[in-house]
Automatic annotation (TrEMBL), chain A:
Pfam family, one: BPD_transp_1
Name of the protein in its database record: Phosphonate ABC transporter permease
GO CC, one annotated term: plasma membrane
GO molecular function annotation: ABC-type phosphonate transporter activity
Entry annotated with the keyword Acyltransferase: no
Xref: NCBIfam families: PhnE
Domain ABC transmembrane type-1 stretches: 97-280, 406-589
PROSITE patterns linked to this entry: ABC_TM1
Length: 597, 286
């Protein structure tokens, strides 16, 4: 990937030396390119190394046409073995599906319950003090750092096969994301209303509940729904380490080499993911619309109608305004029965209905996932001993194997990200409304990206494991396809966020659409795109670890094996190794973002 | 609450407008932001008094310290040195609980209204009563019936009872500011502080808000301190003008019968410091 060096229009063509005026004497030629900065060079070099690493990894893993062609035979064979799909009996399928949903919903609810207080402590504007804030932040970062599979391995020790293991594992790990996003949302609020409550003598808790929570409520719900989607996917992986539901049935089917049932279950998971995405997506869009509506300036529509229209003609227009359900005329009539709560109009009934439904669903899930207070207590009691089994970390005398596998994991992630980038850049560009002329084209590419995004990486990995055989190739392909969904969407979004002004100016200057894209849109979107790319690499390193669990190569396999032979201290070592790698990538991302900001 | 050096005003005591009770006494109040060479002096040795029922306009350029001064009077910020007494509470020594008790008795109106846009107008008004309620509240139903009734009464007072159950962000700027005034009235305050209450509004809405502030001040025998940009508005509206420049009080005169040019010197540019300082009855009345 070639990088335009310093993007900043620094010092327009510095005239070096010779005091040559505009018409200039025969001095040294003026610079027509900006002087490269050391940081810029280093950043470009780093990106080149990363890109080169991606290509090299792809070559080393033998991701090439030959492999694909070789696999084609496997694929045909595989299709033969998985057809006809054999679904479990309907009742069994319904039970498994409900169990999965219940675990996922209860886990997400648990993460929300844990995240909210943590986020309030972690947010700059609501925390109670420096140490509390640092502690809350540390907990959130830790929750994200430890993979859910590891939480599941630990929870399995305490709760055994069943719902609780999944609820605890996903609930705790989700705090890493949910808590962080909640804290961000709290920090982004408009401080004004809170200031007003403080000025009126409201206490700290009153201020937070009265002015902070109402502002962040939509984004709290949206984040929870987003996490619900993610957890649904994760629950399949966790089936391999003893969380009940569809994932567990899937893992059993695979170990029995019953591909007909395995693929049938995979299809059910896929459909479930699509359905969940559709539902939560619709709700999230509605919530976000509300949020953006709020920030738009209001026209004083009502006021004008009243002021201008009311005295003269109490015509149809005024009457229409009056009869709007939200402006009850009788509120002003000083009758004895003055309304002090809103009336039960359709929207209020609808709101209450949805809220009741959500509460009922969460309650049913808690029951369905076998969450019980006594179980939770057992968990708290077992916390110490279980933690003891994981500490101190140990390599189990196979440090060289672990390091080699970590290296493989990095290769898988790099190759997967490269595949993702190569596919996602054009797809993302074609899905951006301001790049493509026809909205229909943009919309259809968006749909393609959304569909890819809807497929859980694990399902891809299982399919590739079967097609290309156990090993890193399957992992790289699965991550590559998976990245297309994530990266394609992010690229399209960051392209669409570009300020349309410069593009119009360049277009007005007679440039072609391709020229406009490269000179006025891409440069502006580059820093964010780069950020997304590094984020994808970060995600892929974590995913590469998880995919190892299902046999897609790398260090995840060691993780699963260590857990099977009860070497939990080795599990800790693996987690720390992956963490160190992820931290390196994150550090790199922070630095690169600074250079290209 | 600490007993101040001056007479303590009780909001309940019926008194004619502008009696002799001093409700606000500011004494050598200084506020610096930052430290060392980069420190910014927002308020520099400010002293003045306000008697009960007085309607005072604070004038000055942006950055002259008007907002900072108002926030100090409500105990939202702590002075660097000096201090003052508001309703008998010593600003420099009061503990947080005392400051909270003080805030309950002072209404504050902000330039940007500061309503929670997602909540209904009525709930926003109800939040004004939080200081006298126990515990956090979310949702209209969580406020006692009496509070909701009172809130509706305040909305009637500002002419917006019809809008009670509408989301606050569906109202125009002028309407939102009226809701903010209703919220401040929920506290049954004895002092009303307003920080540029009309700076974001069109002239017609501005006029409405200023009339409303004056009316509620007269009806409730409130002491009002209001920072303003518009000199003419201040002259016609206030009893008294206090002018700030670079954090210092450079003007403190009755509004009646003064000449516009005197006030305009507040806004004069370069090197006018001395010019303003010299003729006016200098800083620190009292």
């Amino acid at each position: 990937m070639s990088v335009p060096l310093d993007q900043r229009p620094a010092a327009p063509a510095r005239t070096t030396g010779a005091p040559s005026g505009p018409g200039g004497g025969p001095g040294r030629p003026r610079r027509t390119l900006s002087r490269p900065t050391p940081a810029g060079l280093l950043a470009a070099l780093t990106l080149l190394v990363l890109a080169g690493g991606g290509v090299w990894s792809a070559v080393r893993l033998q991701l090439n046409v030959a492999t694909v062609v070789d696999s084609a035979g496997n694929a045909a064979d595989f299709v033969g073995r998985m057809l006809p799909l054999s679904f479990p009996p309907a009742a069994e399928l319904a039970r498994l599906t409900w169990q999965t949903l219940a675990i996922v919903i209860a886990a997400t609810a648990l993460s929300v319950v844990l995240s909210l207080p943590l986020a309030l402590l972690a947010a700059r504007n609501t925390t109670v003090g420096g140490p509390a804030r640092a502690a809350a932040r540390t907990l959130i970062v830790l929750a994200r750092a430890v993979p859910d599979v590891v939480f599941a391995i630990a929870a399995f020790r305490v709760f055994g096969l069943g719902g609780m293991t999944g609820v605890i594992a996903m609930g705790l790990h989700s705090v890493g994301m949910v808590g962080k996003l909640y804290a961000d949302a709290v920090e982004e609020i408009d401080e004004g209303p809170r200031d007003a409550l403080r000025a009126a003598g409201a206490g700290r808790l009153q201020q937070i509940v009265g002015a902070v929570l109402p502002q962040v409520l939509p984004s709290l719900v949206a984040t929870a729904l987003h996490r619900l989607d993610i957890n649904l996917r994760v629950s399949v992986v966790l089936g391999f380490v003893g969380v009940g539901g569809l994932g567990h049935a899937l893992s059993n089917a695979i170990s029995r080499l019953d591909y007909q049932e395995a693929m049938a279950l995979a299809l059910v998971v896929l459909l479930l993911c699509f359905a969940a995405e559709a539902v939560s997506g619709a709700i999230r869009r509605a919530l976000l619309r509300e949020v953006t509506d709020r920030s738009r300036p209001r026209e004083p529509r009502r006021l004008r109608v009243r002021r201008g229209g009311a005295p003269k003609a109490v015509g149809a227009r005024t009457a229409a305004v009056r009869t709007r359900p939200t402006a009850p005329a009788e509120a002003t009539a000083r009758g004895p029965a003055r309304r002090i709560s809103p009336r039960w109009d359709a929207s209020r009934v609808r709101r209450l209905g949805w809220t009741a439904l959500a509460v009922a669903l969460v309650a049913a899930s808690v029951v369905g996932a076998d969450v019980s207070p006594s179980g939770l207590l057992d968990g708290v009691r077992a916390l110490g001993p279980t933690l003891g089994e994981f500490l101190p970390p140990s390599t189990g005398g196979m440090a060289d194997v672990l390091l080699a596998d970590l290296w493989t994991t990095l290769q898988i992630a790099l190759a997967g990200t490269l595949i993702g980038l190569v596919l996602a850049l054009p797809l993302g560009a074609l899905a951006a409304r301001n790049v493509v002329r026809s909205p229909a084209v943009a919309r259809s590419f968006r749909t393609v990206i959304l569909c890819v995004r809807g497929v859980p990486e694990l399902i891809l990995a299982i399919v590739f494991v079967v097609v290309t055989g156990l090993g890193p190739v399957a992992g790289a392909f699965a991550l590559g396809i998976g990245s297309v969904g994530l990266l394609g969407k992010l690229v399209a979004d960051s392209l669409e966020e570009v300020d349309p002004g410069p593009a119009q100016a360049v277009l007005a200057g007679g440039a072609s659409r391709v020229q406009v894209f490269f000179s006025a849109i891409l440069p502006r979107a580059w820093p964010t795109t780069l950020g997304h790319l590094l984020y994808t690499l970060d995600v892929n390193i974590r995913s590469a670890t998880l995919l190892g669990v299902v046999g897609a190569g790398g260090i995840g396999y060691d993780l699963l094996n260590a857990a099977r032979v009860l070497r939990f201290d080795v599990v800790t070592t693996v987690v720390l190794m992956v963490l160190a790698l992820v931290l390196c990538v994150e550090g790199l991302a922070v630095w690169l973002r600074k250079v290209y900001a | 609450m600490t007993a101040g050096t001056t007479a303590v005003a009780r909001p309940a005591v019926a008194a004619p407008a502008a009696d002799d009770t001093v409700v606000i006494r500011v004494d050598s109040l200084t506020k610096r932001f930052g430290r060392g060479d980069t420190a910014l002096t927002a308020l520099d040795d400010v002293s003045f008094e306000v008697r009960r029922g007085e309607v005072v306009a604070l004038l000055g350029l942006s950055g002259s310290g008007k907002s900072t001064l108002l926030r100090h009077l409500d105990g939202l910020q702590a002075p660097t040195s000096g201090g003052g007494t508001v309703l008998g509470t010593d600003l420099a020594t009061a503990v947080p609980a005392e400051l909270r008790a003080l805030r309950r008795r002072i209404g504050f109106v902000f330039q940007q209204f500061h309503l929670v846009g997602r909540l209904t107008v009525l709930e926003n008004v109800c939040t004004g009563a939080l200081g006298s309620l126990r515990g956090p509240r979310l949702g209209l139903f969580s406020y006692p019936r009496a509070v909701r009734e009172a809130a509706l009464g305040r909305l009637e007072r500002v002419g917006l009872a019809d809008w009670a159950f509408q989301r606050a962000d569906t109202l125009s700027g002028g309407q939102q500011q009226r809701v903010a005034v209703a919220r401040a009235l929920m506290q049954e305050p004895s002092i009303l502080l307003a920080d540029e209450p009309v700076a974001s509004l069109d002239p017609e809405s501005s006029g409405q808000i200023m009339r409303l502030l004056k009316e509620v001040a007269e009806q409730g025998r409130l002491t009002v301190l209001c920072s303003l940009h518009q000199v003419d508005l201040a002259l016609s509206w206030a009893d008294r003008i206090v002018g700030l420049r670079h954090g210092r009080v450079v003007l403190d005169i009755p509004a009646r019968g003064i000449d516009r040019a005197t006030v305009m010197r507040l806004y004069a540019s370069v090197g006018a410091d001395a010019a303003v300082g010299a003729p006016g009855p200098a800083a620190g009345a009292g």
